[in-house]
Amino acid sequence: MANMNPIDALGDPTRRKLFEKLRTGPCSVNELVSIVPVSQSAVSQHLKVLRDAKLVSVEKQGKQRIYKLNPVGLMELRTYVESLWDDVLTAFGEEAAKLAESNENTST
Which of the residues 3, 49, 55, 81 has the least number of beta carbons within 10 Å of its own beta carbon? Predict the structure, then answer.
């Protein structure tokens, strides 16, 4: 599942919940397991998907693995969302121009 798209990775509700928790700061696997109704094994699989999508990174601290948000995947996600916004603004501008032209034609 390497090179997963960040938006696809967040399509799963459990992964979104884990991601949202990590937005508040780094967490251990045990902390993350406590917030979702799935096994530790399933949480680890979800975290692997988030790592593959570059949304989270992990570092070992003693026997624990600490997960945190990864700026690389977040930038990719931001770029995608901003491109959607650009499309919306372009469509809005085109529609506004059509309405202005239509108003000009009806007032003459």
Answer: 3
* Single-letter residue type at 10: L
Any domain includes 71:
yes
What is the pTM assigned to this prediction?
Answer: 0.78
* Secondary structure (3-state) at 93: helix
Please return the burial class of 79, using the count of CB atoms within 10 Å of its CB with bins 0-12, 13-18 and 19+: exposed
Tokens for 29, please give them. Answer: 């696997």
pLDDT tens digits along 13-56: 999 999 999 999 999 999 999 999 999 999 999 999 999 999 99
